[in-house]
Amino acid sequence: MAIYSKSRAEDGMKKRALHACQDYEEFQNFVSVSQLKPISKGDVSSLFNGSSGSRATFRNRTVHGAAEVQSGIGCLDGYIDEKKKSANDDNKKNVEMTTKNIGSSAKSSRDAYNFLAQWRRKCSSSATDTLLFLAEMKELPEMTCRQYFSTDIDSDVVGDVVCALHLLMCISVDKSKTNDDLVSESITNLLETPKSTQFISSWLKAMTGCGRFDLAISFLTSKQVLQLKEIVEFVKNSVYAEDAGEDDDYLCRYNDLFKS
Questions:
Q1: Are the C-beta atoms of residues 202 and 243 closer than 8 Å to each other?
Q2: Any residues with CB less than 8 A from the CB of 250 and at least 6 apart, and which?
Q3: Is the dihedral of CA 101, 104, 105, 108 positive or negative?
Q4: What residues in the chain have per-residue pLDDT under 70?
Q5: N or C: fewer beta carbons within 10 Å in the chain?
Q6: CB atoms within 10 A of CB 95
Q7: How many CB atoms lie under 10 A from the CB of residue 253?
Q8: pLDDT tens digits for 49-97?
Q9: What single-letter DSSP state applies at residue 38?
Q10: How far is CA 120 from the centre of its chain?
Q11: DSSP secondary structure string, 71-107?
């Protein structure tokens, strides 16, 4: 439950910060405080008055008492500095461990932030825009997920991919659904059934390797979940999967998620 609450708070802060921040450092600062809660006036007052003191008592303190307060604040500053140092050491250890686990293929946090910002700009309008964006990527789906989403993939990104793959599935089954918005060499090359099925399968498989993928699936809308089920069934029953001897372990994982 604690992991779920933390992930939800971080996801919410990322979505707000992505549109409000000017650079990555500011974005990172926003996300780092997503778990903090506001301090009440009572908590602040207790630092000076004690748990049972009053504001009037503080005002009536002598110079000697004021000196004690100042000394207490100095100790508090030292405590805060010590906590900051400890937190920085922990962050360095976490970064080192993450780097070892992810491998050299993962992009830096700044690159991941810039890529996500580009994704928002190009995929926010429609499933058609997302499909064009995916089709024109130079990297394969597996490499894209490994480089940018190895530690975390946003539920909105998963939703965008699901809608785009569902659109491609519908067009590959019924060519009459092709419209002027899809006049693109990249899309035209995918409209052949084997290629479209392989493209869809590659993205489905790649996403299962993303960080917190199961959590992202749980945030999909009911419509997106239905579309995802249709996509998985389409790939499972495709000729491509049968001829290529497609490893269906990742498809079983989707089915398990649908049951939970």
A1: no
A2: 204, 205, 208
A3: positive
A4: 1-2, 4, 18-23, 38, 44-84, 86-107, 175-193, 239-247
A5: N
A6: 11
A7: 17
A8: 654 444 444 445 444 454 554 555 555 556 566 666 766 666 555 545 4
A9: P
A10: 12
A11: HHHHHHHHHHHHHHHHHHHHHHHHHHHHHHHH-TTSP
Q: What is the pLDDT of residues 97-111, one digit of tens each?
A: 444 444 445 667 788
**Residue whose entry in the numeric block shows the structure tokens 């970064």:** 95
Q: Which residues, 6 or more positions from 245, have their beta carbon under 8 angstroms from its beta carbon? A: none
CA geometry: angle 96, 209, 29, nearest 5 deg: 45
**Residues comprising the chain, all counted:** 260
Other C-beta atoms within 10 Å of 26: how many?
11
Residue type, 213: F
**First-to-last C-alpha distance (Å) of the chain:** 16
Token code pair at residue 185? 């060499």
d(CA 29, CA 116): 17
